């Protein structure tokens, strides 16, 4: 939902907000991603209030004329909280998949243990995005490996209200109004339509769904860790959900991106002998020889099974 849910308290105190956050213990040094928008600004404000040693990291993608002003606004926010400040510039060329490429470039420039200002609203939108692209159970869990998200217990309206109460000037990214980007369309069009259709706020429902998917995935992942994903026999003998998770983990680690459920389904067909190779996510393919699977670049000549 884009507005404040009925019965919500946008004026919650910092202490009550912190009670729903998952920050490290006071005194810990943390890196906080700071775009200058309300969510990341609230992240820095709350991390400081939690007694952490904060360094704010701002990434300039160079995608719009206001990039320099946005960087200065982020620096001013960091200075306001007496936080350290790091600026990184990356190059993202215009073209297809701009949203995904900008996100990938941003995380590559940030520290591995960076904290980001994702809220419960962001997680709900990610659930819909991942399910819509065929992300399977792992997508429904809305994970984000390697990134800390201490504000998942908060709502977007609360981070905005906090910034307003603190008198902090925040940055508005015009890309957040461009519904040609899938995530923006989900935020501004799909979520309000879903709220209207259900006659209730869908964000808690989708977060609950993600929690349940995460719990189920933990059980399945434990079983999948015992399965050799390169063995066609082991994959075909395992329950499909377990075999699929074994393949998802193996492929994601090998190619750097999680495969879609459709890709995994095709690989399971290869393991079962209904083909000798198939293309998968990330410009690669999985092939089978003598009962063993391997991942290799696309278009490479394949020996017969």
Shape: globular
Low-confidence stretches: 300-305
Give the overall average pLDDT.
89
* Major β-sheet strand ordering: 1-2-3
Classified in CATH, the superfamily of the largest domain is HUPs
The radius of gyration is 22 Å
- For this structure, the CATH topology of the largest domain is Rossmann fold
Largest sheet: 3 strands, parallel
Helix content: 40-55%
Please tally the β strands and state the result: 6
* Number of H- or I-type helical stretches: 12
Could you say how many structural domains there are in total? 2
> Termini separation (Å)?
52 Å
Just give the CATH class of the largest domain: Alpha Beta
Per CATH, which architecture of the largest domain? 3-Layer(aba) Sandwich
Q: Could you give the order of the helices and strands? A: HEHEHEHHHHHHHHHEEE
Class from secondary-structure proportions: mainly alpha
- Residue share in β-strands: 5-15%
Secondary structure elements and their pairing?
Blueprint: H1 14-18, E1 29-33, H2 38-49, E2 53-60, H3 67-80, E3 84-89, H4 98-109, H5 120-132, H6 136-140, H7 156-165, H8 182-198, H9 202-224, H10 232-237, H11 240-255, H12 261-271, E4 277-280, E5 284-289, E6 292-297
Parallel strand pairs: 1-2, 2-3
Antiparallel strand pairs: 4-5, 5-6
Helix pairs in contact: 2-7, 5-8, 5-9, 9-11, 11-12
């Amino acid at each position: 939902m884009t507005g404040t849910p009925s019965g919500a308290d946008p004026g919650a105190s910092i202490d009550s907000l912190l009670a729903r956050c998952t920050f490290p213990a006071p005194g810990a040094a943390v890196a906080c991603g700071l775009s200058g928008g309300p969510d990341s600004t609230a992240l820095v404000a709350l991390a400081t209030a939690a007694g952490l040693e904060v360094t704010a990291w701002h990434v300039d993608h160079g995608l719009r004329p206001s990039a320099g002003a946005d960087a200065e606004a982020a620096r001013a926010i960091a200075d306001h909280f007496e936080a350290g400040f790091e600026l990184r510039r990356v190059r993202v060329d215009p073209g297809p998949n701009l949203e995904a490429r900008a996100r990938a470039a941003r995380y590559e420039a940030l520290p591995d243990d960076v904290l980001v200002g994702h809220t419960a609203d962001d997680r709900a939108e990610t659930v819909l995005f991942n399910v819509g692209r065929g992300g399977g159970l792992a997508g429904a869990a809305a994970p984000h490996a390697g990134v800390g998200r201490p504000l998942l217990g908060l709502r977007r309206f609360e981070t905005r209200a906090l910034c307003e109460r603190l008198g902090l000037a925040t940055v508005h990214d015009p890309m957040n109004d461009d519904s040609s980007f899938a995530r923006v369309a989900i935020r501004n069009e799909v979520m309000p339509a879903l709220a209207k259709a259900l006659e209730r706020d869908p964000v808690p429902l989708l977060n609950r769904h993600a929690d349940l998917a995460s719990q189920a995935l933990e059980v399945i992942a434990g079983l999948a860790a015992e399965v050799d994903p390169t063995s066609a026999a082991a994959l075909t003998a395992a329950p499909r959900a377990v075999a699929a998770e074994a393949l998802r983990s193996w492929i994601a680690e090998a190619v750097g991106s999680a495969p879609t459920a459709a890709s995994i389904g095709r690989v399971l067909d290869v393991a079962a002998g209904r083909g000798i190779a198939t293309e998968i996510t990330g410009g690669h393919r999985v092939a089978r020889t003598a009962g063993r699977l391997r991942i290799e670049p696309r278009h490479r000549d394949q020996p017969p099974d």
